[in-house]
């Protein structure tokens, strides 16, 4: 889509834009939530998978009375806890474990995003130039070498992990110069 209010581009500048793709966009709350969930899966994926296997095993143990070594059973004549309550207890425990695994990472990543000006309503400009990923926002200009980044393609855009707890989300519907979304992704992944 052509922006009718944009100043005309000189022929000399168009060659530079083709070599240096860029994107401009406003950060929205749905974008932040989507990118955060994908980033947390990327960052904590192994721990969450391990915790899931442990919770599934615990769920099987709780489902069958004879497999659970603790507590009275029907065979000994003791008090029996209904299976529904046991399953609810396992689900509650799983929720606590999952939140415990991600809450620290989520808190530090949100702080990093706020420090770098990546907050709801902020206007960001991201540019790929000379092997560097450069972005500008309300808190200043930042640069990182492309080989130190980790791009992650999603259905709604591109997440670029810049640092351990810092990421950028470039939506597919951003205003791109120097090419389309695909050219921007190729430049980041190159």
TrEMBL record:
Keywords associated with the record: Membrane, Transmembrane, Transmembrane helix
Domain of life of the organism encoding this protein: Bacteria
Transmembrane region(s): 40-64, 84-105
Protein name: YcxB-like protein domain-containing protein
Source organism of this protein record: Stieleria magnilauensis
């Amino acid at each position: 889509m052509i922006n009718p209010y944009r100043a005309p581009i000189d022929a000399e500048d168009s060659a530079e834009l083709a070599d240096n793709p860029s994107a401009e966009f406003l950060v929205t709350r749905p974008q932040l939530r989507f990118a955060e969930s994908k980033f947390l899966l990327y960052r904590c994926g192994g721990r969450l998978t391990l915790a899931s296997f442990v919770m599934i095993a615990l769920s099987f143990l709780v489902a069958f009375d004879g497999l659970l070594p603790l507590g009275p059973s029907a065979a000994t004549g003791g008090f029996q806890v209904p299976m529904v309550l046991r399953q609810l207890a396992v689900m509650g425990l799983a929720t606590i474990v999952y939140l415990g695994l991600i809450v620290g990472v989520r808190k530090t990543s949100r702080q990093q995003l706020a420090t770098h000006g990546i907050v709801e309503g902020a206007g960001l400009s991201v540019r790929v130039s000379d092997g560097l990923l450069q972005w500008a926002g309300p808190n200043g200009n930042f640069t990182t070498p492309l080989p130190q980044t980790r791009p992650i393609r999603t259905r709604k855009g591109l997440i670029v992990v810049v640092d351990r707890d810092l990421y950028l989300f470039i939506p597919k519907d951003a205003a791109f110069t120097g090419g389309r979304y695909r050219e921007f992704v190729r430049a980041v992944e190159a």
